[in-house]
Design goal:
alpha/beta
């Protein structure tokens, strides 16, 4: 399961992230956080939840959602200042919400935080909230559950650019950069259409490979339209005897990448996210020459996938 450093985003970005999750698990009517009369921010949803806490037994009525975002790494819901002291964040929240209920009653309360929430702390906090608010339907969502939601709904993580905060897949990208730069300098013209020889790439049925690697149909169509016409030139370049050293560098890169992808595969849902990640990482040095041929970096990674050098084949 992916783990995201939520402390690296702003309070507002975290609120917007929670709203997007809310729209998935509660319903499209989950509202943006707004400042109430007491100066605090609440989000509201009224109706029957789509999937919360489960599809079989959803809560219904009026929901009050809160977020508690921290910039502190490794902060925990069991920290004294969050849930234990009389002046803790949750103690103050209970006092505030009891005033809110007098004018704006609600039936369900959910608090989202990017703090760690252990299995032992969770029931203690739930009981604290239930007793303090005088209602049964309360829940606290910690960073572990946030990670789980974003694994289930990876398009949200992608929408908010959370992949950019993750440590890159490690490989010796300099060799790939050198191969791409030399290829770019040697190549003459770009083919305008795929040659018939491309059928030689059918090492494995591509629909089967895409299914094994969770590469979407839309992205595979983009891969073909964007890159297929370059593949003949890449193969000729790599097979050219004078380029033997670059063929070795390419092979080393493939080996490193396949190893990194195999180890870290669960960080990414769809394989196109891996390709995007690798393009960004390879060009990430801001080296002017490589930025100028960013498109060819993507083409090379498409070639590796299409040629079954990276990704599952069985």
């Amino acid at each position: 399961m992916n783990q995201y450093p939520y402390e690296n985003i702003t309070d507002e970005e975290f609120e917007n992230l929670v709203i997007r999750i809310g729209k998935e698990v509660l319903g499209i009517g989950c509202k943006t956080f707004s400042i109430g009369k007491d100066g605090a921010k609440d989000s509201w949803f009224t109706g029957t939840a789509d999937y919360f806490p489960s599809k079989a037994a959803p809560w219904s009525g009026t929901f009050n959602l809160q977020v508690k975002h921290t910039k502190v790494q490794n902060a925990s819901c069991s920290d004294n200042d969050f849930s234990v002291n009389q002046t803790s964040v949750l103690s103050k929240e209970i006092t505030r919400l009891n005033e809110v209920i007098k004018t704006t009653p609600f039936d369900n309360y959910i608090i989202f935080t990017n703090r760690k929430l252990s299995g032992g702390t969770h029931p203690t906090i739930v009981k604290m909230l239930q007793a303090g608010l005088g209602m049964q339907n309360v829940e606290i969502i910690g960073r572990e559950d946030l990670d789980s939601y974003l694994t289930d709904y990876p398009h949200i993580a992608d929408q908010f650019g959370l992949y950019k905060f993750q440590a890159p897949l490690r490989f010796y990208e300099k060799e790939l950069r050198d191969v791409i730069i030399v290829f770019s300098e040697q190549r003459k013209t770009i083919s305008t259409e795929a040659k018939s020889y491309i059928t030689s790439f059918t090492v494995i049925d591509k629909e089967k490979k895409n299914e094994l690697n969770n590469l979407s149909k839309d992205y595979f169509e983009f891969l073909k339209s964007h890159s297929l016409q370059y593949f003949e030139e890449i193969e000729k370049f790599l097979r050219e005897p004078k380029n033997e050293q670059y063929m070795k560098m390419y092979s080393n890169t493939v080996s490193d990448l396949q190893d990194a992808i195999t180890v870290e595969r669960n960080r990414f849902n769809e394989f196109e996210h891996i390709i995007k990640h690798l393009v960004d990482y390879t060009v990430g040095s801001n080296e002017d020459k490589l930025n100028d041929i960013r498109k060819i970096v993507r083409v090379f990674l498409h070639f590796m996938y299409f040629n079954c050098d990276i990704g599952k084949t069985a």
